[in-house]
Design goal:
Length: 434
Amino acid sequence: MKRAFALALALAFLLLTACGTGETPDGDQGEAGRPRETELTLWAYPVGGWGSGSTVSSLVSAFVREHPEIHISVKILSYDTGDKEIEDAIAAGQAPDLVMEGPERLTANWGARGLMADLSDLWESEAAGEIYPAVAAACLSEGGKRYIYPVCMTTHCMAVNRDLMEAAGAWQYVDEESHTWTTEGFIAAVKALREYGVERVGEIYCGGQGGDQGTRALVTNLYSGDFTDPAHTKYTFNSDENVRALTLLRDLDGIAFAPDSLGADNIDRFVDGDIAMCFCWNVANEVTATINNPDLDFDIFPLAFPTDDGEYNLQGGIWGFGIFDSGDGERIEAAKTFIRFLTEDTGRYTQTVLSTTFWPVRDVPNIYENDGLMSEYFVLREYLGDYYQVTPGWAEARAAWWNMLQRVGQGTDPAQAAADFQSAANSAAGYTGE
C-alpha cells in the first residue's frame, strides 16, 4: 500500500514537469518578439526531485513565459562532483548566478568567503515572514546577512528492510508507531540479523562526504554525543560518548566500514537487498527507489537513528536559492525575480515544494493531504535536531569527518581519531580555545 502512495506521488511530479516545455533554448524570442535581455545560469544540486532536469526545466519554463526578458540555462550537479565544479567555476570567474543548495554551502562556505549576494531584501516580503523561526535562524549569517532564501526542508533518517528484520526476529526492537528504537535494540537487531545469515547488516560508508549527514547522526545519537557547541562556534565531537559510539560500530559484527563507498552507494546497496540497513535515507530516496525499482520486493521502513536516552536528534536538510555576486546588478535583480516567482505566491510555492518531494519551510495547508507515504515520514520531523551545519570551517570539517571514519575502519584508536578530527575541524573554524 505504501508503494502505491509513492507511485501516485511520483506520478503527480511527472504531471507537474509535463506542464512546461522542458527546455529553454538559447535565442528564443519573448512575447511580442522581444529578445530576452538577461542571461542567467542556474546550477542545482540534486535536492530531492531536483535531480531531474525535466522537473527543474518545467519550473524555469513557467517563469520564462511570464518573464521573457530573462533566460535561464540549467545545470544539474551531483553531490560527488558538484563542489569541485563550482570551485573551478569560481576560480575561472564563471560562477553560476543561481545555486540551489543549503546554508552549509551558501552561507557557511561561499557566503562567509564574500562570494554571495545579500538577499536580505527578499526576506522583507509577507511570505518570508511566515518562514519557520528555526529555519530562518539557520539561514542567517554570522554577520547578519542573508545569503540563502529557503524553499524546502526534510529530516534525514535511516531505513531498514522490514521483511528481513521480521524474518530474523529483529522487528521486536523497533517501535513501529513512533519510528524509533534504542541503542540496545539496535545492537540486538544487528546481532539477530547476523545470526540469521546476513553478512553485512549495515555499512559505515566513508569514501567521501556524500551522505555524511547519516554517519554523523548515527555516531552522535548512539550515546547522546554532540557535534558542535550550541552557538556553533566550535566542534565538540571529541567526547567519551562519541568515542564509545565509534568503538561500538568498529567492533559490532555485521557493521562494516566501507572506505570506497558514498551515501549514494549505501542507498543502492540497500535497495538492491545487499544490506539490511541504510544510514543515508529520507523520503525522496524512497520515492526514487519506488520509481526506479518497480519490482522492489521488500518493505522499506524509515527510522530515527538509535539513541540511549530517548532523545532523538536527526539532522535536517534546508534547501533554497543563493545568488553568486557577479557584480552585475541587473543579473542579480533578475535572479531575485526568479526566486520571488517560485516562492511568494502560495500556489506557485506549493508547486515548487512538490517538485522537491520535501516539505515547505512555512505552513502550506494540506500539501500532502491523504498521502500515506509522506505522512509516515512526517512523524520524523519532531525529532529534528540542531542545524549545526553553519559552524565555521564546515567544508574542512566534512572532509576531516570521512577521513576520520576511514582511519577508525583501518585500525586507528577511536579516541585518537576523534581527537585529531576535532583539532582539524576547530583549526578550520578558527577556534583556538581549549
